[in-house]
Amino acid sequence: MTTDILMYLAAFGGGFLGATFGALFAFSFVGITLIVGIAVAIATGGDASWINLVSFGPFFGPHISFAGGVGAAAYAHRRGYLTGLRDIATPLVSLAKPDVLIVGGLFGVGGLVVSDIVSIIPWLGTHTDLPGITVIISGIAARLIFGKTGIIGPNSEGLTGKARFTPNDTDCWVRYQEGWGNVAVLGLGTGLLSAWATIALSEAFPDAAASIPLLGFGISAASLMFLTLGAGIPVTHHMTLIAAISASNFLAITGNPVAAVLIGCLFGGISALVGEGFSRLWQIRGDTHIDPPASAIWPMTCVVLGLTQIFA
């Protein structure tokens, strides 16, 4: 558990910043700073301090900054300051409501605490993605505290059964990528490139091999800046990250770069389907944001690392 008071103060600042920028803008800075951090790691022979302190630390760590933005947006929607349903794109400083930014700071501190708690859970704490699982726990908490629909709300068209989870123009996540076949192909394609980059660059820069698998994730996250500005950019960070982790871990098992890249490609496609499934389960069935990519990242990380243990 974190005992340094400065980290809690910094986490408040990170959540505050996430609310100020808006969760989606803040998350795109994870990608931008992560690309810089990987370059630093390559140049310094593997030093990941920038990544740990900036990209995944109090500044832009998703469990702090993004979670703060999501929690603040849920609060703002409940108070009537923010009218858009599940809106995480609006920079909340534009509302001119200091209480919204303070709520963001509190969720930033909560994210740090939750991440620390999960990290000490046997097996899970070392075999999952801590920012991802924290984002989900924080998002569920925000919905329960500020939302009105419950974790899984009703269908806006009154549909029940399996049809209840069908997206429509009102309740959807990323409308242009939601088809099962479409999203699977997207995951396979982006996963392939991320897996290849992980293998190729880890071979070229072995001292930075621990940081390089984050490159695809970083590029995917940075691209969401353009999505926030209105471009039809796909949401792929749950695909590229899981593909890279899979490729990196299975290379050590198979000893075959081609096999490792193909395995990474496959897991990228699976993670794409898992993310889409979670978007239909709870993201579009509620009035606040519960992140579909994070919903896929943390269990898929468990699967990949669990399989690595079995086959190693």
Structure description:
The chain has one domain (5-311). The chain contains eleven helices and no strands. The protein has helices spanning 5-21, 23-44, 49-55, 62-79, 98-119, 130-146, 180-204, 215-228, 237-254, 257-283, 292-311. The protein is globular, with a radius of gyration of 19 Å.
Question: How many strands appear in the DSSP assignment?
Answer: 0
Helical residues, percent: 55-70%
Q: Give the structural class.
A: mainly alpha
Share of β-strand residues: under 5%
What is the subunit organization of this protein?
A: single chain
Number of domains: 1
Shape: globular
Return the average pLDDT rounded to an integer: 96
The number of helical elements comes to: 11
**H/E topology pattern:** HHHHHHHHHHH
Largest sheet, in brief, is: none
Q: Give the termini distance in whole angstroms.
A: 30 Å
**Residue runs with pLDDT of under 50 for 5 or more positions:** none
Rounded Rg: 19 Å
In short:
With 312 residues, the chain is mainly α.
Question: What secondary-structure arrangement, pairings included, does this model have?
Answer:
Elements: H1 5-21, H2 23-44, H3 49-55, H4 62-79, H5 98-119, H6 130-146, H7 180-204, H8 215-228, H9 237-254, H10 257-283, H11 292-311
